[in-house]
Amino acid sequence: MMSIRGFRRGGVTLPQRMAFSHDPIENAFLPIHAKLTLRAAGSGKEARLLVSEGEELREGQLIARADGKGTTNAHSSIPGIVRRIVRGRSPDGTALNTVVVSLAGSFSISGKRPERYIWKSLNKTDILHLLQEKGVTQVSTGIPLYDLLHGKKDGGPVQLVVNALEMDPYRRVEEAILIHHPQELIDACDILNKILKPESIAIALDAGLQTAYIDALRSHAKDADLKIGIESFKRRYPQDMPQLIERALRDKRGAAGSMLCLEPSTLMALHEAVVSNKAHIEQYVYVGGGAIKEPRIVKARIGTSLGDLFEECGGFKGLPERVVINGPLCGSLAADLDSPIEKTTRSVLALCHEETHSGAEQPCVRCGACVKACPESLKPYLLYKLLIAGRANEAYDLGLARCTSCAACAYACWSRLPLVQLFDRHKAQGQNHAQ
Ligand code: SF4
Ligand code: SF4
Predict the structure, then answer these.
(1) Which ligand is nearest to the CA of 383?
(2) Is 407 in the pocket of ligand 1 (CB under 6 A)?
């Protein structure tokens, strides 16, 4: 019998708000205008622009080249004409160069039979170069995959973990990929095996996943002659955070080497780059929330606006109270419906009032629910009190820097205190001071 893992303390049990669907993941309509921001969210840097207004572009053409560590190549997700280059806004409201491409011309990728490269004849330097060239980015962080793998390839033993856990109530993208694309995921593991030679490869998945899907993964792994472990985790938020997965696995295996957690959507982008010679121009996104008529997962072109995706999913059935990117707990509010999806977008949610967990702030009643919820053994109510009183140094002494911003404490708080917002603000200030 397979044992089920989890973290030792803290966390909250959240309802799964997204019904599971066995339907294949469909491609979203191509956008009439694609807004392409010139950085992956989170890296803080921009790639070097290569195109100008009025220029015709092929589908997948390079429009900006990586300019040092933390930046990544960007490609046009549709064929068309560069309509404008503007200081736009990313979904979190940050000012950025945005290339607006209007759909025109013929398709060089869509509707064509995908190329299939014989990648096994490539050496690891060639594969890394391909990942860099195709702008493949780690979907959960926005870090260029080339940077991540290049740093690991000669840096001692690595344990590779495919993180298919989805503890956020509105996410099932990674699990859906695991179910619908097991062959591609195992191929991607095989490619990573060639680059990193990891000590072990494990797939972290929800203990509730049907065994038929696990058997399919095992069978493909056997065909590829790849040894892959299956690690089942009990459903408790924020178990999908890489540091908690790492802690749970280290408890079991001891501390051999560094751990690299990559989610299935990143592995799909890697697979398309190496096997199909395709740039990272698409993203698997869950479009949902209580205000959406027909919630579902789609594979959408980067640069598609949130408004277009909502429309494709039947539009609104009620007025959304909030539009959130990447989940209600750790995500960010969308600036507006024209905001585009990026390489780091995994869900876009139009939440109605009952889902926003909002309410008037009340004074702390010292109930201790936040302490019980914190997986890092912090005392969130005390950190909050110290920060409000301007005693940030004492909050750091009590471990503020260890806070992962998981928001389990805020979810558990009866008094609706904006705990995480305050922690994040102070941590960001702390980082700015340190730079
Ligand atoms: S956001 Fe920080 S303080 Fe709150 S539960 Fe998560 S780790 Fe603990
Ligand atoms: S959960 Fe909220 S009300 Fe309860 S102790 Fe923590 S901060 Fe105070």
Answers:
(1) 1
(2) yes
Atom 5 (ligand 1): residue with closest C-alpha? 374
Is 260 domain-assigned?
A: yes
Q: What does 230-296 look like in DSSP terms, one character per residue?
A: EEEE---BTTTSHHHHHHHHHHHH---SEEEEE-HHHHHHHHHHHHH---S-EEEEEEE-TTBSS-E
Same domain? 401 vs 260: no
314 lines ligand 2 (CB under 6 A): no
- Rounded-to-integer distance, Cα 67 and Cα 50, Å: 12
Q: Is 381 in the pocket of ligand 2 (CB under 6 A)?
A: yes
378 lines ligand 1 (CB under 6 A): yes
Give the number of domains in the chain.
Answer: 2
Residue at 268: amino acid letter: M
Instruction: Give the model confidence (pLDDT) of 13-24 as tens digits.
Output: 887 776 667 788
Checking if the pLDDT of 433 tops 50, the result is no
Residue 367 CB–ligand 2 contact under 6 Å? yes
Whole-number Å distance, alpha carbon 381 to ligand 2 midpoint, is 5
Task: Determine the residue of 364, 384, 411 to mutate for testing ligand 2's pocket, defined as the one with the most ligand atoms within 8 A of the Cβ atom.
Answer: 364
50-54 long-range contacts, CB within 8 A, separation 24+: 51/82, 51/85, 51/99, 52/82, 52/85, 53/82, 53/83, 53/84, 53/85, 54/81, 54/82
- φ, ψ for residue 232, nearest 5 deg: -95, 135
Main-chain dihedrals φ then ψ at residue 366, nearest 5 degrees: 55, 40
For residue 369 and ligand 2, the question of a CB distance below 6 A is answered with yes
Residues 126 and 231 in one domain: yes
What is the residue with the minimal CA distance to atom 2 of ligand 1?
A: 403
Residues 324/325/331/332 CA torsion (nearest 10 deg): -70
Work out the average pLDDT over 185-191.
97
Of 218, 244, 276, the one marking the end of a domain is: 276
| β-pair type (4-5, 229-233) | parallel
Highest mean pLDDT range out of 161-175, 247-261, 294-308, 347-361?
A: 294-308
Greater confidence (45 vs 133) lies with 133
What pLDDT, on the 0 to 100 scale, is given for residue 435?
Answer: 44
Mutate to test the pocket of ligand 2, among 12, 365, 383, 387 (most ligand atoms within 8 A of CB): 365
Residue 10's domain comprises 4-21+113-276
Residue minimizing CA distance to atom 6 of ligand 1: 406
CATH number of the domain within which 241 lies? 3.40.50.11540
pLDDT band for 250, please (50, 70, 90 cuts): confident
